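Working notes for the structural subgroup meeting. M.R. asked for a predicted model of this chain before we commit to crystallization trials. I am recording the input and output together here so anyone reviewing the notebook later can reproduce the run.

Input as submitted:
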Amino acid sequence: MRKLIFQNIQSGNSNTVTEIVLLGFQNLHSFRISTFLLLLIIYCVTICGNLLIILVVSASRSLHSPMYFFLTQLSSMDIILSTTIVPNMLHIVLYEGSSVSFIGCLMQFYFFSTSETLESLLLTMMSYDRYQAICHPLHYTSVMTLTFCLKAVLLCWVMIFAVILALSIAMSYLWFCGPNVIDHFFCDLDPILELSCSDTFFVKIEDMILALPFALCPFTVIMVSYAYIIITILKIPSVTGRKKTFSTCSSHLAVVSLYYGSLLSIYLFPNTENIKKIFSMFYTVITPLLNPIIYSLSNRDIKQEFKKLKSKMLSAL
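Returned structure, recorded in token form:
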């Protein structure tokens, strides 16, 4: 393992941590290079897949609807999340550990938390969109207008950026006197707070208060929306009609199950560092990879528009 250098600044009788050491995945040894290459491929496919979704939706007039608008926003969040986590993770795997400045650690936490929270809210808006389309089709166009969608997304962006910024600033005022080692591959809230020599009670309370409107409420709205959607679908007399209606929300339901399933697994399974790392990698690395794949493979409209776009690009060459 490469020797990591700790830099401390003397302050009175105490030391202030200026670097955080991320241990990442220990004991990879002979699998180090293969793991690095696998993660690099995953990152490249993730970026290309999500950019492709954004390009196809933006270039296709027939896809300029609320559902696909929210999908482009979701792809943007996946790109931000993956770029926040994976590049530094590649460095950790290659050198069996990495050091990051304390400010850099807080910035990683900020962008990670922002993208994860915004993804939760976007999935909630997409479930509401499907609820309106299936349960109230006659009022859909009057409710899900472009203005409403733009205002909803803009409000979420501004609100989340401000709220997570407030939490990050509160964390920056904590006293970190050492140790400065995190047994993880990125700077998450709990590992950072465990390093603090200050009383973290109020920061944890602030995090719990934020969890209610930005974690529990979105999950509840999604569950209620799909409860009404399922009831409405079951009332459709023909089997063909039920299948056709369900297909319009199957992709979103799969993404929601993947997102919340990986998050809930962290709390349901034994509380060990290795288990946490595995499930954390799933929702920070694998989920952004699978989201565009799920939508592109199971969505007929996107596949058709992708073929048209590919034909136009080939003919232009």
